[in-house]
Amino acid sequence: MSLATLLLLADGRLPSGGHAHSGGLEAQVAAGRVTDVTGLDGFLRGRLATGGLVAAAFAAAACADVSRGAELDDGLDARTPSPALRKASRAQGRALLRAGRAMWQLPGRRGRDPHQPVALGFLAAAAGLTPAEAAVAAAHGTITGPASAAVRLLGLDPYGVHALLARLTSDCDRIAALAAARQHDAVDDLPAAGAPLLDIGAEHHATWEVRLFAS
Predict the structure, then answer these.
(1) DSSP letters spanning 134-176
(2) Among residues 198, 184, 205, which one has the least CA distance to residue 49?
(3) Using one digit for the tens of pLDDT, what is the confidence trace for 95-110?
(4) May I ask the CATH class of domain 28-205?
(5) Chain-centre distance of CA 189, in angstroms?
(6) Are 130 and 1 in contact (CB under 8 A)?
(7) Has keyword Cell wall biogenesis/degradation (predicted)?
(8) Dihedral of alpha carbons 3, 60, 162, 153, sign
(9) SS3 content of the chain, % helix, strand, coil (to 5)
(10) Other CB atoms closer than 10 Å to residue 186's CB: what's the count?
(11) Where are the domains positioned within the chain?
(12) What is the pTM of this model?
């Protein structure tokens, strides 16, 4: 294990476009469902238990066997009913691979851009990380991205937001471990937890003329 490599891959400053996405938070803030740190706590816990589990499982599976990439990508399509979220995930996957190619040797790819968790798994494998470490990076990203967006959207105290993230670390580790244990499962058997409000919110958000985040 290279802890420094894992930190590099999970760093929010990685030029992969993640800062342009709120993970669905902007739509929920606009709807009045998240207004403070307490509301953000509930949002992040729900996101970790649903999208976080799915992303971590698919990142771990892609890291364990990069040859499954196309199959895993189709599986994520089936688990993402919102066209807006599929578009956002592929945009982040494309940006992540671009950043990864500057750091590690990646095999050439053809076809459409992969979903972000699959791209993350590819990068983790290229960097010499384990599927379990890929799962940690994926789970971590599903909460840190929206947390950072919350500071900008709601003007929350960044110290309070990071205190919340610190309280979520054990949950993040638990979700990542559950996901990594499924790395060799058939695609149809991988986690498929959904968050319908995020899907609906993403479709509304995509129609806004003025917005702070791409998703």
Answers:
(1) HHHHHHHHHHHHHHHHHHHHH---HHHHHHHHHHTHHHHHHHH
(2) 198
(3) 999 999 999 888 766 6
(4) mainly alpha
(5) 20
(6) yes
(7) no
(8) positive
(9) 70, 0, 30
(10) 11
(11) 28-205
(12) 0.95
